[in-house]
Write a structure and sequence with these properties.
Strand content: 25-35%
Number of helices: 9
Structural class: alpha+beta
Distance between the termini: 37 Å
Radius of gyration: 25 Å
Shape: elongated
Oligomer: single chain
Strand order of the largest sheet: 6-7-8-3-9-10
Length: about 375
């Protein structure tokens, strides 16, 4: 396998004015690493992948694979294999012929082709389908064949461009497991593009979050979730997305407080959060808190607990109006309005009043994040 290095990679489409699709991507993919490019449609992730594959020219910057400069190397000479969103199988060929086609073009011997095809088919559990044509296969089976066509080539780098987008939800989960298993078995270098943050979180060793052609953060899945660098990453990673409330940090009689716009409510920050936000008094900020850190009560909320030697303060509470409940069996998403702000809670199933009735929402602010309102960058210590 091989390492992949992108240094200041840019893609500019000519015109009046010019359109910059990718702004200076810097990325080091280690040998055997699984890296996922994720972001909304139009963020430049597929364009970046296509530049690695050689299907798009590089406007600026350098691309190297295993230490060899690849900017002007034709795609067929890069020793990569790409799996596309469409299966791109030859309809008139059997599965066996589809798997063998690239090897025949390469001039491989008949014995080598037979060995590689059999090995790939066994790895992907499609041995029984080798004599079928693509139209005789299900969507998941066709995707396995597309993967197999990449595997038989034994490339230095595997590239995936939203390969599961055409599958239903159950098949997507199944194929995610297949791709993760393949990565482990092959110890292969893989670069995977998706707009689905669940795919990114479950597959990637590291994730590259992109927006409008810019890299927002490169990190491990849990670091992205726990320590997002900016508001975009915080809102994109996680389902449902993080709750955001604009406001300001002010000093009150009991210490630092968060004043939500427009004077909607004021909450005292717990000591751990106050310490993290020292020096940001008077700053216009955005409070971010994940739905699982929000609880719902039909009464006044949790009470103060006094133990033998400790006092456990309850989460900060605020009155709210219930807007919608999505019951999912093992959990529920509760959508409510606190003042002018919409808030989502991810809670265990529980009895709730009718839509429009008052409830109490409790916020575990010890797990909250603050972002600079103007720049969107995360602020605070730790």
């Amino acid at each position: 396998m091989a390492s992949v290095k992108l240094e200041g990679i840019r893609k500019i489409y000519p015109g009046n004015p010019e359109h910059v699709a990718v702004h200076g991507v810097d990325l080091d993919v280690a040998d055997g690493e699984f890296v996922v490019l994720v972001g909304p449609s139009g963020c430049g992730k597929s364009t970046t992948l296509r530049m690695i594959a050689g299907l798009e020219s590089i406007s600026a910057g350098n691309l190297s694979i295993d230490g060899r400069m690849m900017n002007d190397v034709p795609p067929k000479n890069r020793d990569i294999a790409m799996v596309f969103q469409s299966y791109a199988l030859y309809p008139h060929m059997s599965v066996r012929e589809n798997l063998a086609f690239a090897l025949k073009l390469r001039g491989s011997s008949r014995e080598e082709i037979k060995t590689r095809v059999s090995k790939a088919a066994e790895t992907l559990a499609i041995t029984d389908y080798l004599d079928r044509t693509p139209k005789q296969l299900s969507g998941g089976q066709r995707q396995r064949v597309a993967l197999g066509r990449a595997i038989v080539r034994e490339p230095k780098v595997f590239l995936f461009d939203e390969p599961l987008s055409n599958l239903d939800a159950q098949l997507r989960v199944q194929m995610r497991r297949e791709i993760a298993r393949l990565h482990k078995d092959l110890a292969a270098t893989m670069i995977y593009v998706t707009h689905d943050q669940v795919e990114a979180m479950t597959l990637g060793d590291r994730i590259v979050v992109m927006s409008k052609g810019h890299v927002q953060q490169i990190d491990t899945p849990m670091n992205l979730y726990d320590r997002p660098q900016n508001r975009f990453v915080a809102g994109f990673i996680g389902s449902p997305g993080m709750n955001f409330v604009d406001g300001a940090l002010v000093l009150g009689e009991k210490g630092m407080q968060f004043l939500a716009e427009p004077n909607a409510f004021t909450v005292d920050l717990p000591p751990s959060l106050s310490y993290r936000m020292e020096g940001f008094e008077g700053t216009a900020v955005t409070l971010g808190i994940r739905p699982e850190d929000v609880s719902v009560f039909t009464g006044e909320g949790p009470a103060l607990f006094i133990g033998e030697s400790t006092i456990v303060h309850p989460p900060v509470t605020a009155p709210a109006r219930l807007d919608l409940v999505e019951e999912l069996g093992n959990e529920a998403f509760v959508y409510a309005t606190v003042g002018p702000h919409s808030v989502t809670a991810r809670v265990a199933p529980q009895p709730l009043p009718d839509i429009g009735e008052p409830i109490t929402m409790a916020f575990d602010l010890a797990k909250a994040h603050f972002f600079d309102k103007a720049s969107g960058e995360r602020i605070g210590k730790g």
